Each structure stands twice: as structure tokens, then as C-alpha cells.
Amino acid sequence: MSRNGSAYHRLLNTSRWRELRARQLSCHPLCEDCMKMGLIIPATEVHHVVPVESAGDRERMTRLAYDPGNLVSLCPTCHTERHRQLRSHSASEKRRRAKEEAAAFWRKVEKGGGIF
Fold first, then answer.
1. Helix (H, G, I), strand (E, B) or coil at 72
2. How big is the CA angle at 64 (ends 72 and 35), to the nearest 5 degrees?
3. End-to-end CA distance of the chain
4. Which whole number is the average pLDDT over 87-97?
5. In terms of pTM, does the model score above 0.90?
6. How confident is the model at residue 30 (pLDDT cuts 50, 70, 90)?
């Protein structure tokens, strides 16, 4: 779903979100993922650990969007990586990997290296 005009987008276009985001970055000014690797990199982005759009209904989305416990401060590189990892667990990505694994299995079988 496109985020423009979505319920998620509307939640982040509020003064409540801007204040929460500023507070998050003020309290946690360094990238939390980089710090785990011993790096000191400024955080400029705030990421929702549990995706807001995964909530299903407006009330739950609102709780996730504004819950300080669902936020992590990140640098742009780590934020991109978090989203890449989220997509890697999506249903479409799982289907794509399953097809690749099945194709590899059948190639192996066809070469005589299978279980038959």
C-alpha cells in the first residue's frame, strides 16, 4: 500500500508525531544499531520497531505510532537496512525464496544429485 494518503501517513503528519520524534532523537541522539557495533553515529531518523501498518485497525495503529517503546533512533543506513530486513520477511519475499529453493532442488535432481 502506498504510504501517501494512508492512515500511517496521516498519523505521521501530526504535531504529536513531530514532538514525539524530536523527543526520541533528543533522548537517543546516536544510532542505536551502530552503537551495538561500537560505532558512534548520529541518529537522524526514528523507526517504528513494530510496523504501524501491521496493526490492522486505526486504534492499534495509533497506539503503535505514538508508543515511545516502539521507537528506535537510527542513522539513514541502519534505517534502510531495517526496512530491507522487514521486506525480507514479507509473504511475497518468502514465496520468491521458496520458488528459488524449489528450482535449485529440481536442478539438483535433474543432474542426478537428488533423493531419487
1. strand
2. 10
3. 44
4. 66
5. no
6. very high
Using an 8 Å Cβ cutoff, are 58 and 7 in contact? yes
Grid coordinates given for 73: 533512533
Is-contact 74 45, C-beta < 8 A? yes
Helix (H) or strand (E) holding 28: none
99 Rama class: left (phi>0) / alpha (psi -120 to 50) / beta: alpha
d(CA 61, CA 38): 33
Q: Give the angle 67-15-61 at the CA atoms, nearest 5°.
A: 35
Which residues sit opposite 74 in a β-bridge? 45
Residues 6+ apart with CB under 8 A from 29: 42, 43, 73
Structural Rg of the chain based on CA atoms: 20
pLDDT tens digit sequence for 32-60: 999 999 999 999 999 999 888 888 788 99
Distance CA(49)–CA(62), nearest Å, equals 14
